[in-house]
Amino acid sequence: MSGVTRKIALGACLTALALALSWAESLIPLTLFIPIPGFRLGLANIVTLFALYFLGRRSAWSVLTARCLLGALLAGNLTALIFSFSGGAVAMAVMTLLYRNRRLSVYGVSIAGAAGHNVGQIAAALLVLGGWAPLAYLPPLLALSVLTGALTGSVSAALFRFAPAERLFSPV
């Protein structure tokens, strides 16, 4: 299998994994513990970080876009697409700018991405709902993004140790 074909196949597998994690996460009733509408752990971001570090920006954007589109299609919810993609796009933009910075580890990139995701979703809420009320959610969401970003960053760091690039892209 050629390198390009392997990269496309890995991107498709990562998209499926991100979609599955996103769906599984929707089954966790987090609002019972943290009563903020729409709050999630961001487990699909583990896959996005992996794609960014191992496949590059273009492939990571493709995985993110496909996950958001397929997730909205399967859920039958255009509003979900607006919120998911706006948060994901801001997160990806932030992570893309930071991931090559040698002073930041995957933890810092993940935390910044989680914060960016929350900013993107609040921006979408401002547009969709109108008014300034959604801004009240931003401070607690940004505080929680430190925890969720650290969680996804630590899982990503562990994954990076156990899935070295030379094993992913070497000939079979």
Description of the molecule:
By secondary structure, the protein is mainly alpha-helical. The chain has a single domain (3-169), classed as Arp2/3 complex 21 kDa subunit ARPC3. The chain contains seven helices and no strands. It has helices at 3-26, 44-55, 57-75, 78-98, 106-129, 138-162, 165-169. α5 (106-129) runs antiparallel to α6 (138-162). The mean pLDDT is 91.
Descriptors for this entry?
single chain, 172 residues, mainly alpha
Describe the global form.
Answer: globular
Poorly predicted runs: none
Strand % is under 5%
Question: What is the C-level CATH assignment?
Answer: Mainly Alpha
What structural category do the secondary elements indicate? mainly alpha
The number of domains is: 1
Number of strands: 0
Could you give the order of the helices and strands? HHHHHHH
- Mean pLDDT score: 91
**What Rg do the Cα atoms give?**
16 Å
Overall CATH architecture: Orthogonal Bundle
> What is the CA-CA span between the terminal residues?
8 Å
How would a textbook summarize the main sheet? Answer: none
CATH domain topology = Arp2/3 complex 21 kDa subunit ARPC3
Number of helices: 7
Helix content: over 70%
Keywords: Membrane, Transmembrane, Transmembrane helix
Protein name: Heptaprenyl diphosphate synthase
Pfam family, one: Hpre_diP_synt_I
Transmembrane segments: 34-56, 68-98, 104-129, 141-163
